[in-house]
Design brief:
This protein is of the alpha/beta class. The protein has helices at residues 13-30, 40-50, 66-78, 89-98, 116-124, 142-150, 163-174, and strands at 58-62, 82-86, 102-108, 132-137, 155-158. It has a domain at 58-174: Response regulator (Rossmann fold), CATH 3.40.50. It contains seven helices and five strands. It has a five-stranded parallel sheet, with helices on both faces. α4 runs parallel beside α5 (116-124). It starts with 12 loop residues before the first helix and ends with a helix. The relative contact order is 0.11. The mean pLDDT is 84.
């Protein structure tokens, strides 16, 4: 004798749905693992598709002159390098704290009210101490350049910046071809 399956709206329909869902759930839980459902190639393709996306590194450009920072940002973006800018030490430290993708900092030295040397010192004393830093400056003396280099910066470039050299340094630090 066949059991009549209740249709939506009939008495017993909700109980039938709950029992069916529970049965299906427990059938799946008790189902033996089948290694032969997917081929090795299908497993590999699935692993690639389900892997988390790698986040592209970001360059933070710090300069209190937006003309300089925007020009450098657009130059690097034209090479496919993701950038963001900050107009001083406070904004730079804020972005470094909240944006973990920042992998390189390019900073001017002459900024107000705090200069690039203060920024580098703050970074070296923070959780981002290992951050790669490139310094760009148009006005410096030998003593200041030596102080900066002692703080472990990648390089110190004078303005006007040799864009080919800067691009090479950025690509090297971000490990992009």
């Amino acid at each position: 004798m066949a059991v009549k399956v209740p249709t939506k709206g009939e008495p017993g329909y909700v109980a039938f749905v709950v029992i069916t869902l529970e049965r299906d759930f427990f059938d799946e839980m008790n189902m033996a693992e089948h290694d032969d459902i997917l081929s090795d190639a299908e497993r590999e393709a699935l692993a690639v598709l389900s892997a988390p996306l790698a986040h592209s590194p970001v360059v933070l450009i710090v300069d209190d002159d937006p003309v300089n920072s925007d020009a450098l940002k657009w130059y690097l973006k034209s090479w496919g390098i993701e950038c963001m800018t900050a107009d001083g030490v406070e904004e730079a430290m804020f972005k470094l704290h909240y944006e973990p993708r920042i992998a390189l900092l390019i900073t001017d030295l002459r900024m107000q009210p705090c200069d690039g040397l203060d920024l580098i010192r703050q970074i070296r004393e923070s959780e981002r101490a290992a951050l790669s830093i490139i310094v760009v400056s148009g006005d410096t003396d030998v003593e200041e350049a030596v102080d900066v280099m002692h703080l472990g910066v990648v390089d110190f470039l004078l303005k006007p910046v040799d864009l080919d050299k800067l691009l090479g340094l950025v690509k090297k630090e971000l490990k992009i071809g």
